[in-house]
Amino acid sequence: MMTFKQLEAIYWVTQLGGFSQAADKLHTTQSAISKRVQELETLFNMPLFDRTQRTSRLTEKGEEMYVVAKKLLEQRDAAVNQFISSQEVVRRLRIGVTELTAMTWLPRLVNLVQTHHPRVVLEPDVDMSMILRDKLLANEVDVIFVPDSCKDERFTTKRLGVVENAWFCKPGTFDGMKVKRLHDLSSHTFLTQGDKSGTGVLYNQWLSSVNMQPSNTIVCNSLLAIIGMTVSGLGFSYLPRQSMEPLVKSNLLEVLKISPTLPKTNYVAAFKSDQRSTLLSSIILLAQECCDFSRALQTP
């Protein structure tokens, strides 16, 4: 059977140009190197070195054996380094996030992962919650950070944080109108993300439970576009209250103080129950640490 010691012998004799040099490199004797080479020659019944020459020159078959030895030794060294290294193996982790997460605390999460897992590469997929749920089922992402609307017994969920939403409109839109209750808005245009959004699903269910049916609805899949349409005065919408504060202070948005108030939205990390791993658990703990919807584009 061929051994790594034999492969090392032919490799270093070739690399260093002689048997004595290889012996010094491998901390052994020249006779031990010669023996290992002879064992290989006997095993394959062919000479590996041309012994008619003064220098150690490979035969044609010896050249082939050298290439094989080089490849196998590199693979051995890589395997050894992988298992003795204190660092993680380079790994890619596909995370599905909503637009709101990407706009708020995703930069902080990326920084924490780079700090605690420098050999892990994050691959974010920004999409609507229900689309991310389907991607998780199809194994296109490893974990998703979404509103807690994806009830599925195939998933395990871990709580991340809470989003406090409020009703918003362009300042002055309802001046002079008696808007004190939610139903006072039923004749006005409602801007919403619809049934592909986790928050949209939860709030549509809630609106039905309080018998609120706006007469005119504009559905848009982009949170940023809904903010823009609200600022433009095209309708009223629910938006994350704290992260919209700069727009309120700039007099671009106005909070509608009406009742009943919107319920808070719980955010969770969801992953397939049969896909547990130590790395995934660690990433979720980091997400729990930095999950914060109060400010846009949070830096470390």
TrEMBL record:
DNA-binding is among the record's keywords: yes
Domain named HTH lysR-type: residues: 2-59
GO molecular function: DNA-binding transcription factor activity; transcription cis-regulatory region binding
Pfam families: HTH_1, LysR_substrate
Keyword list, A-Z: DNA-binding, Transcription, Transcription regulation
SUPFAM superfamilies, per the entry: Periplasmic binding protein-like II (SSF53850), Winged helix' DNA-binding domain (SSF46785)
Family: Belongs to the LysR transcriptional regulatory family.
Protein name (Swiss-Prot/TrEMBL): LysR family transcriptional regulator
Organism of derivation: Diaphorobacter ruginosibacter
